[in-house]
Automatic annotation (TrEMBL):
Identification of the protein by name: Quinone oxidoreductase
Record's keyword annotation contains Heme: no
CC terms in the record's Gene Ontology section: cytosol
Annotated Enoyl reductase (ER) domain residues: 11-323
GO molecular function: mRNA 3'-UTR AU-rich region binding; NADPH binding; quinone reductase (NADPH) activity; zinc ion binding
Gene3D superfamilies recorded: Medium-chain alcohol dehydrogenases, catalytic domain, NAD(P)-binding Rossmann-like Domain
Organism: Pseudazoarcus pumilus
PANTHER family: QUINONE OXIDOREDUCTASE PIG3-RELATED, QUINONE OXIDOREDUCTASE-RELATED
Pfam families reported in the protein's UniProt record: ADH_N (PF08240), ADH_zinc_N (PF00107)
Tree of life domain: Bacteria
Keywords, sorted A to Z: NADP, Oxidoreductase
InterPro entries named in the record: ADH-like_C, ADH-like_N, ER, GroES-like_sf, NAD(P)-bd_dom_sf, QOR-like, Quin_OxRdtase/zeta-crystal_CS
Length: 325
């Protein structure tokens, strides 16, 4: 019998249960995957806590992982038993030893990339890809601001934007994380626990502001993020680590400099097979070339997912984290 983490109600980390589950043969268009590593992401806490409702309860949890194909269902032609694969964006159920997965969600994992790295890089890496290559296409000479620059997505954005020739300003919450952001290549690092990041961005940019702000923090930073963008600049709100942003009058965007605001989600960027393959190939290329290094800094046993969530929500993690079945 296989095991998985499941929730029967929403709430804190204590609602995560390690349970025996039966995995049926894969249906048409599905793969059965023996997982070697599972990605840990902040969105998992949103599903667990109810901010992002799950389809029904009880429910699995988790959106990304990597492993080996054990069986394929009818109508699956692009994968075979024994293939190494990775995936992102569900459906929910990655917190499992074995699972079935729609084949359209998976990509083949290059031999040079480990299962741990594959599980750690897909959701955060594909998010970073759309942020710097599609939502706002970062170009040489851009000055950007990335909040949580030492976190999973932030650490990738810092490196990728630097490789593209941008000047990168990052915010962090401690000196330890500031040092990590500098190591990753950030040109300017602001510790928001000690400094006013709006004032510092103004000083760094001589009052001009930045071309784009990438904000995954949400409520605690959003309104001040608007103050960091230059005239006709863009604010990309792609997370809610501190809570959801309160409703506001869109006229505020005009008053702040006719700003562009977007709230992207990965699902809309990988809605087709072609988009997923193209974005994954771009991600694998920058990682394989060494332009972007993804550090798996924390490994937790899958059965200890509750402790992993506590560490993540307590901002006690840096870089990427994985759960090991």
């Amino acid at each position: 019998m296989s095991h998985a983490i499941r929730i029967h109600e929403t709430g804190g980390p204590e609602v995560l249960r390690w349970e025996e589950v039966e995995v049926p043969p894969p249906g048409p268009g599905e793969l059965r995957l023996r997982q070697h590593a599972v990605g840990l992401n902040y969105i998992d806490t949103y599903h667990r806590g109810g901010l992002y409702p799950v389809p029904s309860l009880p429910s699995g949890l988790g959106l990304e992982g990597a492993g080996v194909v054990e069986a394929v269902g009818d109508e699956v032609e692009e994968f075979a038993v024994g293939d190494r694969v990775a995936y992102a964006h569900g459906p929910l159920g990655a917190y499992a030893e074995v699972r079935n997965l729609p084949a359209e969600r998976a990509v083949k994992l290059p031999d040079a990339i480990s299962f741990e790295l594959g599980a750690a890089m897909m959701l955060q890496g594909l998010t970073a890809q759309y942020l710097v290559r599609r939502t706002h296409r970062v170009e040489a000479g851009d000055t950007i601001l990335i909040h949580a620059a030492a976190g999973g997505v932030g650490s990738i954005v810092v490196q990728w934007a630097k490789a593209l020739g941008a000047t990168v300003i990052g915010t962090v919450g401690s000196e330890e994380k500031a040092e990590r952001a500098r190591t990753l290549g950030a040109d300017h690092v602001i510790d928001y626990s000690r400094e006013d990041f709006v004032r510092r961005v103004g000083e760094i940019t001589d009052g001009r502001g930045v071309r784009v702000v990438y904000d995954s923090v949400g409520r605690d930073t959003f309104l001040r993020s608007l103050d960091c963008a230059q005239r006709l600049g863009m604010v990309v709100l792609f997370g809610n680590a501190s809570g959801a942003v309160e409703p506001f009058n869109p006229l505020l965007l005009a008053q702040k400099g006719a700003l562009f605001l977007t709230r992207p989600i990965l699902a809309q960027y990988i809605a087709t097979r072609e988009e997923l393959d193209e974005m994954a190939a771009d991600l694998f290329a920058v990682v394989s070339s060494g332009q972007v290094r993804i550090d798996v800094n924390q490994c937790f046993a899958l059965r200890e997912a509750a402790e992993a969530h506590r560490a993540l929500e307590g901002r006690r993690t840096t870089g990427a984290s994985v759960l090991l079945p």
